[in-house]
Design brief:
single chain; about 375 residues; alpha/beta; abc type-2 transporter like fold; 14 helices
Length: about 375
């Protein structure tokens, strides 16, 4: 009995070792999950890009900026010369927060008056917006306290002095910081990516498992016709799901659709090319549907955690932020959230659309070449 049992165990190990690709995926996946959950799954936002419109340009305004620079919540990334320039940076997502210092800031402080500093926050990401909102107010209060202590010392400690600095915050695009405004566009991106990649990979591998792919190959159909024929239904299905989620998100959760619906559909179709390419490439290297699912899942994990779908990119280590630059979903989420929540034009999302074009062309070309070689 013992020998039979050990023989069966030995046989199972041999079968596992005969499929090294699946074995490698099973070994690598827990490590990937640990790293992503350990480093990327955090809402501890730091280094939020801040654009400053300093109209005073005085030592007093520089001390205020130093106070915000000293706290690692903000990174003063832009020094702008107009409110329009500040708005453009926030519209295209380059800056998430804007500070406007009035031209009479130092005069108000010197004359024992009260200086008002405006803080404009991008509310399209409620997590970043809420953190920046509380941090901006807290840092402003601390700086006001320091100035007030100096005034009291100069006045000999007598009399009540008005609060010297007042930070007035204003949240754009999503004033109530409703989380649904952030999540629903993210769901659209995940649906487009997962449906096209998973269904495309499984569809072609299923044909191979059943032996029907050979029947298609011997027909007069060309290889590109086979690829287009297999991919078109899933493209249309993904775009239908996009409209479905948009409608339900608007009706049930009140998610606004402020941008052009036509532009949303066109750019969604552009993003679908990347998902189709990944599914096609997986189908060319996988031999079974199980292997195809595991391989696609390996691409889904980093897409979920490193694209800004759940967790803000500003909260991640710098290395993971660099890695996220190679994930198409990152750029699509910027586009879809900007179109739905901010209602921006093409100029504000042009760089992200160009990135989607590059990813789509490169991924689909590599996948088509690999798939054609597999057919040959």
């Amino acid at each position: 009995m013992t020998s039979r049992l050990f023989s069966l165990i030995r046989k199972e190990f041999i079968q596992i070792l005969r499929d090294p690709r699946t074995l490698a995926l099973v070994i690598i996946m827990p490590v990937m999950q640990l790293l992503l959950l350990g480093y990327a799954a955090t809402n501890d936002v730091r280094n939020v890009p801040l654009a400053v419109f300093d109209q005073d340009r005085s030592s007093a305004s520089r001390r205020l900026l130093d106070a915000y620079r000293a706290a690692d919540y903000f990174a003063i990334a832009f020094d702008v010369n107009s409110e329009d320039e500040l708005r453009t940076l926030i519209d295209n997502g380059t800056a998430r927060v804007g500070m406007i210092i009035p031209p009479d800031y130092s005069e108000q402080l010197a004359g024992n008056g009260s200086a008002q500093v405006a803080f404009v926050l991008d509310g399209s990401d409620p997590t970043v917006g809420a953190t920046a909102l509380s941090a901006a107010s807290l840092i402003g209060q601390q700086q006001a306290t320091e100035v007030q202590l100096v005034r009291l010392a100069q006045a000999g400690g007598g009399g009540a002095i008005a609060l010297p600095i007042e930070v007035r915050t204003q949240v754009w695009y999503n004033p109530d910081l409703v989380s649904a405004y952030f999540m629903v566009p993210g769901v659209i991106g995940m649906i487009l990516f997962s449906i096209t990649a998973i269904l495309t990979a499984n569809s072609i591998v299923r044909e191979r498992e059943r032996g029907t792919i050979e029947q298609l190959i011997v027909t007069p159909i060309r290889s590109w016709e086979l690829v287009v024929g297999k991919l078109t239904p899933y493209t249309l299905l993904a775009l239908f799901n996009t409209l479905e989620v948009l409608a339900l998100g608007s009706l049930l959760f009140g998610v606004p659709i402020r941008g052009s619906l036509l532009m949303i559909i066109l750019i969604s179709g552009l993003f679908v090319i990347s998902g189709l390419g990944i599914g096609l490439f997986v189908s060319a290297i996988a031999n079974t549907q199980q292997e195809a699912m595991l391989t696609v899942f390996m691409t889904l994990l980093p897409s979920i955690f490193l694209s800004g779908f759940f967790f803000p990119l500003q909260a991640m280590p710098q290395v993971l932020q660099w890695v996220s630059l190679g994930i198409p979903l990152r750029y699509y989420l910027v586009v879809i959230r900007s179109l739905l929540i901010k209602g921006v034009g093409f100029e504000a999302i042009r760089s992200d659309v160009i990135a989607l074009v590059i990813f789509g062309v490169v991924i689909m070309t590599l996948a088509a070449l690999r798939f054609r070689k597999r057919l040959d």
